[in-house]
Fold each of these.
Amino acid sequence: MTPPRLGIGVIGAGRVGAVLGAALRAEGHALTGAYAVSDASRERAAELLPGVPLLDVPALVERSEMLLLAVPDDQLGPLASGIAATGLAPGGQLVVHTSGRYGTEVLAPLARAGAATLAIHPAMTFTGTRTDLPRLVGCPMGITANEEFLPVAAALVVEMGGEAVVIAEGDRPLYHASLAHAANHLVVLVDQSRRALARLGIEDPGTYLRPLLEAALEESLQRGSGALTGPVARGDAGTVAAHLDALADLDATAAPLEPGDVSDTYRALALAALARARLPEGDLVTIRALLEAAPPPEES
């Protein structure tokens, strides 16, 4: 039996909202409109949601059977309260948000107005382009809802090609922190390594790093800390000391707008690696002392 088709209003045509709207439209749902403020969002809507009118929030609420709220985390609560305060939301309307941080409690004002509230968070990084659409296939999506509405959330996930994973309301902050820590801080780490290699004159540091990073990522996804290699895992204190000297020099000579934070990041992550390394006590103490030592003051 084919699930009923819905008239969906997209509030927030950013990287996530526009892509998910396009995915649901491809499954036969009608898009009643999209709310887009910035020029980038308007261009994204034109590209991914051609022919969909750009409307204000009250108009979308009035004409939609389902609202897809794809706005920044800190805007979600005020948006839900604002919609509820207008009295426009009809009973029985579906309201879905895409925040990883929140479950459905943030939508409580709309639930009290009679809406069925769902949280659906795809565990992937979005580019806001059509290349995201095939990447939705098989993507885990964390869903949170009252038990009676979980099948609705799961059905929407299946329509977008994803795999539904139920996340309890109280577990959402840790769930989101784990994903943000992995993805966002990986970007920082790779950016720092790219900058260091570029300083050496390597023209395409991303390509240079790719084989190493792809192998390390695959191994760590399979084996966790068992994939750890390198000087800390081997107990090579001399190499760690040389790294710290080189990175301190890198930071000290950073360009004016370039963050000089590679050494601090290395120390923090190396200490975390040390906690996972099975080293003899003497090696462990020596390397910890190196990593915890205050870096030399910068020369004026």
Amino acid sequence: MFRPKIPTMPQPSGLVNPPVVVQPTTITPGTPAPAPAAAPEPSRPVVQLTPGTAVALVGAGTAVVLVVGTVLVSLLLAVAVTSASVAVCAVVLRSLIASDAKRR
């Protein structure tokens, strides 16, 4: 059950061509090609911030910060509510166990 089963290789079913022998070729050294002239660097477009785009970037950054802050605060609130409910359950169980022990 735990041993791997190795599949058997079936016999080829189609036409099988014999391997082709590749003859080596000789390389004759020639004159080296001249180095290409250095092409001028293409000028990159410069990003210009207009007042409208700056306001849009600030607004987008503020929105991202607010969304991330809301998510983090909600996660913290969920942890706080869960821990408070676990603490209340622990107090109730402790009270039940203590009252049960007094009756005996």
Amino acid sequence: MIDIKRTWTYLSDSKKRPILLRTFRIWQRRPHQVRPITADIHQCCSCGTSYQGNYCPRCGQSASIGRFSFKNAFLLFLDVWGIGNRSMFRTIRDLILRPGHMIHDYLHGMQSAYFPPFKMFFLLTALSFVVEHGIHLTATPSAPSAPVKVSANTSDVNEIIIQKAAEASDFLYRLSEANPAIFALTMLAFFSIPLYLLFRHSPRLTDLRYAEFAVALVYTANAYTIFSIVGDITHESLIQFFALVMFVITLKQFSGCTAARTTAKVLAAAVITIIVFIALIAIALIIAYVIYT
């Protein structure tokens, strides 16, 4: 537990503040400490097996099972959506306080201590959608935008291309509204390619595979979404801006690059992604022009 009074004493004292900061940085780099195995002999309430340790070797039930409390009931309620376990809260905490170091630990084998990245991504994306748009029990879905009308006898190729572009834009909009998590994950995968090429040779990353970087980027997006949700709830633009900063901080801790170098790589990847996206649109328009001429 955090001693709030002692922490405030260190924060208010200019001489003790560097000690607190150094302690925090040491904690950031320290991997999650697994609870030591107890020496007591337990008898499993489910299968009756006598054993020594924290979990039953026969059925896997925890040795700390006891009477129900409000906390237990709340965790069981959350478990309906697959988030009623301690690793979810630990993952949120570490994504806020030590995101890059946590991702590094996860990729190096400490996977049982943290919530799965893709499962967390879908849950946070769904929560972000609810927070952003609200819950409307009686609302009817909005009608799609009307397509651009073109006369049946027209020979104007430009109008045909404009209509096809409008239809494609409307399709992408409806796709993002109907499947926000899938759409966001697709955009993230598209953005991950230039990021991987720029970050694969970093001080802290050796022999990094694309699949590993993709997992790291999903966790990075989760850290961004957490702060974005808080910003939407509080309507604080500063927190929403910090969500972008958190994206850079996470990659900085994960890669070991300096803040300036990490920012430059992220901006370069964004520029490359935009250029490629514009090039793909131009190719699509050229193909449409060739087909309809």
Amino acid sequence: MRSPEPVDPPGAAEGAAPARSPNLADRYHRTMDVLNVERHRLCLRLYLVIVIAHWAEHIVQAIQIYVLDWPIEEARGVLGMPFPWLVTSEWMHYGYALIMLIGLLLLLPGFAGRSRTWWTISLLIQVWHHFEHLLLLVQAINGVNLGGADAPTSLIQLLIPRVELHLFYNTLVFVPMVVAMYLHTRPNAADREAMKCSCASEPVRSDR
């Protein structure tokens, strides 16, 4: 008895190339489409919540020091009160700086025109902010501090105390980021034409 002839799967055309499984590049492009086209508005809002939460911690810490007159070692923001390691861990500070940097990079392609310029400004400031935290982390790991200080010290920290400096850094990153998001949802005609997402729901405004 002859064995049955192999049957092609349904829909298979004669001479058609076999289906190709998604490679790393395909997955990357698909992820970027989700972040910057399909779900850009949602991703921006989630990212904004993360940034504001961290910035608020720095503001609360400054209030504890300058308004409530707490000693610096006791001024640990909100979450730092029940979890002191959140303030003292250089790994945690570096991890957050890295997350902020990655977020700014991943969400950049969704911006166009004026909003892209402001988002890029925020990104460049965060590149430096990240470097400062990397420098702090390296000192904490090696046990050798810059300038022979008692604790890890960043470059600008040689001039400005750490509490004030990192509140300033987070403010510098936050302000152009918010300007970018505002302009992104209220584009002019040229910016709207270049956009691929649906973040702008308002009518096009005429240029002045």
